[in-house]
Recover the amino acids of this structure.
């Protein structure tokens, strides 16, 4: 069966029951550079691997602050991510103006998922080609969500999306039981270790190509600076998750 007969818009079903344009958008997320998130009882950490289009260009931004209590990491088309980022910031501002409090994280993620799903219901539109990891804190606790171009969204203890993210998820499956009681420094080291597992053999982590954002119950969203990143990357050589088990 010729695929091109059914992929000219996102409202035509193939005989196999697929919407090819939605699958293409999901593939765009898989082709993006890896980003991941993990959370404990008090903190959530976002880690991203940044790329540069050429040696003459700077590194692309992979994380965006939405509000003091919320941020996103992206994999896929950066232009589409900026559209969703602007929408989320506007929603947070309107909620704060109306209710004088921060926007609940889960409710905003639902709005983003609904907006993404609407893009799959019209032949004149295309799905967003970007996946988001949404980190946030509200009165209900610490949250880490993933949104998909299909309109689905999920809440995770830890998750990785983008190119070669399976290696990071395999690392998470081995150690996620430690994250809940981990302190901020341990969470950061776990995140960087997962990123290191996912990069190519000829690549090297450094303070220029990796981005780490942190958020805590009593801490607004901030990025680690270059010196802090350099120090944490240096600690990876001696970091052993088994020592955390012994301490417990």
């Amino acid at each position: 069966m010729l695929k091109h007969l059914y992929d000219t818009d996102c409202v035509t079903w193939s005989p196999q029951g697929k919407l090819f344009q939605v699958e293409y958008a999901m593939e765009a997320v898989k082709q993006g550079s890896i980003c991941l998130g993990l959370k404990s009882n008090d903190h959530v950490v976002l880690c991203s691997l940044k790329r540069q289009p050429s040696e003459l260009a700077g590194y692309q931004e992979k994380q965006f602050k939405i509000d003091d209590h919320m941020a996103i990491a992206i994999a896929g088309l950066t232009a589409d991510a900026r559209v969703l980022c602007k929408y989320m910031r506007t929603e947070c501002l309107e909620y704060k103006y109306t209710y004088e409090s921060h926007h609940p994280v889960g409710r905003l993620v639902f709005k983003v998922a609904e907006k993404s799903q609407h893009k799959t219901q019209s032949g004149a539109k295309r799905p967003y080609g970007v996946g988001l990891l949404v980190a946030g804190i509200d009165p209900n606790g610490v949250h880490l969500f993933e949104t998909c171009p299909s309109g689905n969204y999920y809440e995770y203890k830890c998750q990785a999306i983008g190119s070669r993210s399976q290696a990071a998820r395999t690392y998470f499956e081995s150690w996620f039981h430690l994250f809940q009681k981990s302190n901020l420094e341990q969470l950061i080291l776990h995140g960087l270790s997962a990123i290191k597992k996912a990069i190519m053999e000829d690549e090297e982590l450094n303070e220029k190509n990796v981005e780490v954002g942190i958020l805590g119950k009593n801490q607004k969203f901030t990025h680690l600076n270059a010196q802090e990143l350099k120090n944490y990357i240096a600690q990876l050589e001696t970091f052993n998750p088994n020592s955390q088990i012994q301490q417990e």
